[in-house]
């Protein structure tokens, strides 16, 4: 089906993408940087560098079509297992990224948010990241939410500890613990009603979550693509959104509950 376009919409957006049914929250596992570099006989960090440029492309494409939250998995709690020089490079990437991209974030009204244990990253990385959050805090458009030193199991453990403490201190009754209580004690609580992704995309060919948004993805639609993250383009991203729009989201009910349908 071909959908109408307003005059302001650039013609790089495919006419088969329905702008009235864009997923509100898109989460992406940016995988395949190392293999992209290896294929070219380059060091793995060259893949991460190229991947950083793709983050800019995808962030602008997502904002352009009206995605409200774009969560990007940048560094997992398990990625510390990698060689020291690779980890060191990954920790410097936020600095390089925001150095060159803050003006465009501002121009596109994009607000930066972070999930993950930011206290566990080097202090200069912390500083640039918190500075980017502060500098874009007044922006009212898309939230660009980076998962940095993020692990969903650690997130859930912290949440359970907070809830248990509230119970032990007599502030919360066990019977009053609901799904909403748990959601409110996860790092995504700052996203409010948009905490749960509608669509989760993983590039790089692996079909697993690797400890990403375990609770929040309960009813997400999954798209796995063999495209390596550094090869991702706005066109491929829009194709993934079209794939989402062709899914039936039933949430355990019947077809008429499809929230990605009109
Ligand atoms: C994803 O690419 C980036 C991070 C995990 C930081 P990889 O570095 O995992 O690339 P592959 O999977 O080895 O190709
Ligand atoms: C997942 O990719 C983490 C990020 C993209 C930041 P990995 O490459 O670390 O995942 P595994 O090791 O293949 O599961
Ligand atoms: Mg990988």
Automatic annotation (TrEMBL):
Keywords: Magnesium, Metal-binding, Transferase. One of its GO terms (molecular function) is manganese ion binding. Mg(2+) binds at residues 31, 221. CDD domains: Cis_IPPS. Substrate binds at residues 32-36, 44, 48, 76-78, 80, 82, 202, 208-210. Its EC number is 2.5.1.-. Its cofactor is Mg(2+). Belongs to the UPP synthase family. Homodimer. HAMAP family: ISPT. This is Isoprenyl transferase. The lineage of its organism: Bacteria, Bacillati, Bacillota, Bacilli, Lactobacillales.
């Amino acid at each position: 089906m071909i959908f109408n376009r307003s005059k302001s919409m650039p013609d790089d957006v495919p006419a088969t993408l329905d702008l009235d049914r864009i997923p509100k929250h898109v989460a992406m596992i940016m995988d395949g940087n190392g293999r992209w570099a290896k294929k070219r006989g380059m060091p793995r960090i060259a893949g991460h560098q190229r991947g950083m440029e793709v983050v800019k492309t995808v962030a602008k494409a997502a904002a352009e079509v009206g995605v409200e939250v774009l969560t990007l998995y940048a560094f997992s709690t398990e990625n510390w297992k990698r060689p020291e020089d690779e980890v060191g490079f990954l920790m410097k990437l936020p600095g390089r990224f925001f150095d060159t991209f803050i003006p465009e974030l501002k121009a596109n009204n994009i607000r930066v948010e972070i999930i993950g244990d930011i206290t566990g990253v080097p202090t200069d990385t912390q500083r640039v990241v918190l500075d980017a959050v502060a500098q874009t805090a007044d922006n009212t458009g898309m939230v660009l939410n980076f998962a940095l030193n993020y692990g969903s199991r650690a997130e859930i453990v912290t949440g359970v500890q907070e809830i248990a403490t509230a119970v032990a201190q007599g502030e919360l009754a066990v019977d009053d613990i609901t799904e909403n209580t748990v959601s409110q004690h996860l790092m995504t609580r700052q996203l409010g009603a948009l905490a749960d992704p509608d669509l989760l995309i993983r590039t790089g060919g692996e079909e697993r979550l690797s400890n990403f948004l375990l609770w929040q993805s309960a009813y997400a639609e999954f798209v796995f693509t063999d495209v390596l993250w550094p090869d991702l383009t706005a066109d491929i991203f829009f194709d993934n959104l079209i794939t989402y729009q062709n899914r039936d989201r039933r949430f355990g009910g019947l077809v008429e509950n499809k929230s990605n349908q009109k």
